[in-house]
Write a structure and sequence with these properties.
Blueprint: E1 4-7, E2 12-15, E3 24-28, H1 39-59, E4 64-68, H2 75-84, H3 88-105, H4 121-133, E5 137-140, E6 143-146, H5 162-167, E7 183-187, E8 204-205, H6 207-218, E9 223-229, H7 233-248, E10 254-260, E11 263-265, E12 268-269, H8 280-283, H9 289-297, E13 305-306, H10 309-328, H11 341-347, H12 353-369, H13 372-389, H14 396-400, H15 406-424, H16 428-440, E14 443-448, E15 451-456
Parallel strand pairs: 3-4, 3-9, 9-10, 11-13
Antiparallel strand pairs: 1-2, 5-6, 6-7, 7-8, 11-12, 14-15
Helix pairs in contact: 1-9, 2-3, 4-6, 4-7, 6-7, 9-10, 10-12, 11-12, 12-13, 15-16
């Protein structure tokens, strides 16, 4: 099956054909590092990490180049640095380190490139210069602005009217603008803010120009895929495309535009500005990162996703079931095979993760019912399919012992070993007595051909008794 992706610009699913199959390029807008990332920020990370994994499988790991930028100069960063009385580098380093650790906990692979705004300043200034020379930008009162009238297709990506675009631009219409929709490429720095020298005067870049410069410097134009959240379609991606095309008169900026839906908390989009956020940094101390990833992939990436405690609980239970299938088949060596055909068909249909997850459950059911070579092959398919989605990379025993007191785990291990010995000696009375003691400790024992494993059973009313 051919990989098909929904292209926001075309408003349809299109067969994916890279410019060069030996150099597949993808760029995704990354974090602004002034605080910890919330789960809404994590959704595009997990979605495009999943696409990254799939592209690497199709074209080869070395053939796929994935860049996700870091915005490390921004009003929010400046404000935080001033509040703490430290350089902006102190703020950005702190939260970038936390971001890396948190996203790694969700199973996100390291990207090929991670360009930063502060390290791309020469390219940003050079691109603004070309826009000015091409009459697509102009200087006014210490600012340099993009001239939207110079780009006849402005609004093509978002399909907004000019009035809608002006209303959605998030800024006041300054008197020095030639057109109300024009946007800032370079602006003077305020007192205490970082400043860079440029032919347009000392200052710092606007938000949109940094991504265009990073893409050009890191991947080159046109790129195959540009990704991000729905909230970036306008104004950010609309402006990116306009300035990227006008700077060098290239025929295309990105051949495919992919956008994930909002993650909602209650009736509203999750947003730091609204204060309705769940931070990944806090969440991973309470639930496995793998369960958070599962929750984020439980709905199709283009659809909105409602974030609830119930969603997380269900995600843990579904992973329990898959890890349970692996634990029950611990004595079976998985055959080295690829993902199942049904799983790949779902993934290649615009990353249909709900269908792909359903196939994981179907494979787990077969692992628990089949025998012999058939079971070994199905277990191999389950592992290969799950790994492509970023799941089942841990040890099943460790999964079920998470949060269990080490002393209790050691006690249960000894009891299970004693029970295995009793069963081997056909001392059924002793084996049954030990099982009863284990049940009292809320430990469920699973016998297999090589002995037995155990897990702590779910307790709806509280944790297991560990006296």
């Amino acid at each position: 099956m051919v990989l098909k992706l929904y292209d926001t610009l075309a408003r349809e699913k299109r067969a994916f054909v890279p410019v060069n199959p030996e150099r597949v390029t993808m760029y995704v807008c990354g974090p602004t590092v002034y605080n910890y990332a919330h789960v809404g920020n994590a959704r595009p990370v997990v979605v495009f990490d999943t696409l990254f994994r799939l592209l690497r499988r199709i074209y080869g790991e070395s053939a796929v180049l994935y860049a996700a930028n870091v915005t490390d100069v921004d009003d929010k960063i400046n404000r935080k640095a001033m509040e703490e009385g430290v350089p902006i580098e102190t703020i950005t380093a702190r939260y970038l380190d936390a971001y890396h650790a948190d996203m790694s906990a969700l199973g996100a692979l390291k990207t090929s490139f991670e360009p930063r705004a502060t390290q791309t300043m020469d390219a940003i200034i050079a691109m603004i210069g070309r826009l000015v020379r091409n009459n697509a930008a102009y200087a006014a009162e210490g600012h340099v602005l993009f001239n939207t009238a110079a780009y006849s297709d402005y609004g093509k990506l978002s399909r907004r009217s000019l009035d809608d675009m002006i209303a959605g631009a998030r800024v006041d219409v300054a008197p020095y603008k030639q057109n109300a929709a024009d946007f800032v490429l370079w602006k003077p720095s305020k007192p205490g803010e970082p400043v860079w020298e440029s032919p347009f005067g000392p200052g710092r870049p606007g938000w949109h120009i940094e991504c265009s410069a990073m893409i050009e410097q890191t991947l080159g134009l046109p790129i195959d895929i540009h990704g991000g959240g729905n909230d970036l379609i306008f104004p950010h991606h609309e402006n990116e495309m306009a300035q990227g095309l006008c700077a060098d008169h290239v025929p295309a900026y990105s051949n495919y535009w992919l956008h994930n839906g909002f993650l909602n908390f209650g009736d509203e989009k999750m947003s730091k500005s609204l204060g309705n956020v769940v931070l990944v940094h806090d969440l991973i101390t309470k639930v496995p990162g793998e369960a958070i990833r599962w929750a984020l992939l439980s709905a199709h990436y283009r659809q909105p996703l409602a974030w609830t405690e119930e969603l997380l609980e269900q995600s843990v239970k579904q992973l329990d079931r898959l890890y349970g299938a692996l634990q029950d088949s611990a004595d079976v060596e998985a055959t080295a095979v690829g993902p199942s055909a049904a799983f790949l068909e779902a993934m290649e249909d615009d990353l249909n993760t709900p269908r792909a997850i359903a196939e994981l459950h179907a494979l787990a059911s077969r692992v628990q019912t089949e025998r012999g070579a058939e079971r070994a092959a199905t277990k191999g398919e389950l592992l290969a399919s799950a790994h492509l989605l970023g799941f089942l990379g841990g040890d099943p025993t460790a999964w079920f012992r998470r949060g269990v007191d080490p002393a209790l785990a050691a006690r249960i291990d000894a009891m299970v070993a004693e029970r295995v010995a009793a069963r081997a000696a056909k001392d059924w009375t002793k084996a049954d007595a030990i099982r009863a003691e284990l049940t009292a400790l809320n430990a469920e024992v699973m016998d297999n051909a090589t002995g037995a494993t155990w897990r702590i059973k779910e307790q709806p009313d509280g944790p297991a008794d560990q006296d």
